[in-house]
Each structure stands twice: as structure tokens, then as C-alpha cells.
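Look over this entry.
=====
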Amino acid sequence: MTTRYEGAGAKDTRITVLKGGEEIGDEVVPEGQIALAFNYDEVFYIQGTIADVFYVLDRARWELRKIEEES
């Protein structure tokens, strides 16, 4: 499997959160989970429990803080 990289400007990216039972494209978010969607030309989403998504966001915030401290 080849990793595909796509980029979008932070100012141009809209974020939505969908709850279990809501449609995201041709898929439906499973009950008990959410989908954190990044919307630009395409939609990329991270799906999991609220705790799973918070974990991803916390890791991203930690990485951003490391870079901020180095600046």
C-alpha cells in the first residue's frame, strides 16, 4: 500500500463532528462512535470513540507544543 499525501490550508479546512447513525459520504458512523471530519476538496475523517478521538487530538497538540517550544 502506498501512502498518499494531500495538503490543505488550515484556514481553508472546515472541521465537523458526526455522531453515531449519521451519514458520512456512503458510510454511516457506527453507534457509540464519532467521526472527526476535515473538509476541504476531499473529506478525511478519523472515526472512533470520543476517547479515541480525544487521544489523537491530544497527541497532535503535544506535537504542536514541542514545535512551538523549539521556535
